Amino acid sequence: MSKKLIQAAAGAGGESVYVEDVFSTYVYTGTGATQTITNGIDLDGEGGLVWTKNRNQPRSHNLVDTERGVRLRLMSNSTDGQYNEVNGLTSFNSDGYSLSTATDYNANNDTYASWTFRKQAGFFDVVTWTGDGTSSRQISHNLGSSPGVIIVKKTNSSTDSYWMVYHRDSPENTATTPNQTKNLVLQSSAAIANNNCFGAHSTQTDSYFTLGTANLAHINGSGNTYVAYVFAHDDQSFGDNQDEAIIKCGSYTGTGTGGSPTIDLGWEPQWLLMKNLSNTSNWYMLDIMRGWAVNGDGQRLFANTTASEYPNSEYFNINPTGFTLGSTVSTQINTSGETYIYIAIRRPMKTPESGTEVFDVQQSTTTDPNFVTGFNPDMTFSVPSTTASFRYIFSRLTGTNFMETSSTNAESTGAAIKWDYSGGAHNGFTSYYGWNFKRATGFFDVVAYSGDGNNPRSITHNLSVVPEFIAIKKRSAEGNWWVWVNGLTDNATYAQNLQLSETDAEASNNVFYKSSDQSSTAFKIGAGFNGANDSGATYIAYLFATLAGVSKVGSYTGTGNSLDIDCGFSSGARFVLIKRTNSTSDWWVWDSERGIVAGNDPTLRLNSTAAETTNADYIDPLSSGFTLTTAGNWLYGMNYPSGEYIFLAIA
């Protein structure tokens, strides 16, 4: 790619661009009145596409783009031309878009999903033209790299007006001269056909794409108007160093076997559009916001039908480097020997600059959702306020399942657990406090995996730095909460570990390899008894790291006197977790919502079901972190003289 195009992909002034800047899945509930969708995507200044679908009613998909203009709606499930929906999408904004009252966009109490694609070199473009009736016409675009997918639609008529789809992995029709590429049709479940609507792969370039020589009415009929949505493939010009990709357009061959194949993208996806190339099948649409659980149900829509969404039934599982076909084998997505094409978009990748971007603590409400966070949480602790009860932990990747930090029990299912809110989550617990965490580079990651019994084993993660705190729990059966923290004793091969549900001091259980074996791309585990990699078992891992001004994983030695713990924060810690490592002690937790004050502070223990205690002052506020008081000067406390402690604090 030329330097000019690299700068275009990086954005104005050459600054880094991230997937969060150019793509958003936003879920919302209709109001029947005008509402504004704020998703952080600048459509007014940069342009792009908004694709909307009613989730709970059989209604059409709606595609509105900045090149054709507001209110001009196309439907991916129909050959109809565009029409002016006066009560549809009414404006493109600098941070999203606005809606009026049309039922396909905003019916009262209906649920909706919208996917916003911003125009950006290396990611996506919208192109319009007026047909001239010529074959092999070249249409300019601004991707700066060869397209991975091109979707063309006639806009002024429903006659000869299919949604023609080019994919970089489609076969070419070598019987034609010059060679043409076979294409799919977006509004249909039909297999690929010899429509000759696109030129050979070699004619699709970084500055133009080439139309075909036949069926010109669909792509370049004289006097007709057209739009193309153009997706890039593996353009590595994004991220901190402008050397990472955020979109890939690829293919895989079905095996007909549950749990295979595995598609390696090099990163974890948040959105997927896929179709059987070889045979009849729907266009599957999945995203992490509506539900894409690992070893559990998710929710899918079909781009070619009006059908409302329904459970994914373990057809796809995402992982840190791509996705795997799930245990439920469907002929539409995993027939042996048949070819499937996809567009995949990467999960969020920005490094946060403040704790409020990735952590929120609040008391639950009786509304739905009962935690409104301002970001999309990926993990929530629910802890009781004044009553004795379990401490529950929920994860977006495990869907409606949850576990208890004071118990070794397998995960359970909670019917009230829902993650499909933009800016919140719901678990149905009232009179509880919620610690809500968002996965983010350098701060926190969640990895769901299946054990294979191998020793050693390295599990890929997307923290992008070496983890300093790892907690692993078996999901499918009873199993210990294994915890490794940087600062625990390293033995010759393995590191010592703690157990979250127990008060035990650090011990050798051969679960984690020593600290020097943990890396910025993978954590290394062993074969400890009832450990973290039993063959056929499913697991969840939570990883934290120190991020300047956001989080701190550290250790200290107790003094019995007032002790300041400097975390490098500017406005104090809002969450503090402490555990003694060289002797028995509880897992002590404080948060700013219940109170970190110069006085008695409500204190919880993660390894216990006891109610919080409120009659002691163990911790005081400190602008750079937190202060431990003399009240913790006892054997099982958090400031015993010569006691060795680890902690996790969040600003």
Residue ranges: pLDDT <50 for 5 or more in a row? 1-8
First-last Cα distance: 41 Å
Mean pLDDT across every amino acid position = 94
Overall geometry: elongated
- Our count of domains comes out at 6
Q: What's the alpha carbon Rg, rounded to whole Å?
A: 26 Å
Provide structural commentary.
The protein is mostly beta strands. The protein folds into 6 domains: 18-118; 124-232, no CATH class; 247-346; 355-437, no CATH class; 444-544, no CATH class; 551-650, no CATH class. Strands 10, 12, 13, 14, 15, 16 and 18 form a 7-stranded antiparallel beta sheet that branches. A 6-stranded antiparallel beta sheet has the order 19-27-21-22-23-24, with no helix packed on it. Strands 28-35-30-31-32-33 form a 6-stranded antiparallel beta sheet, with no helix packed on it. The two termini are 41 Å apart. Residues 1-8 have low confidence and may be disordered.
List the main descriptive attributes of the protein structure presented here.
51 strands, single chain, mainly beta, 651 residues, disordered N terminus, 5 helices
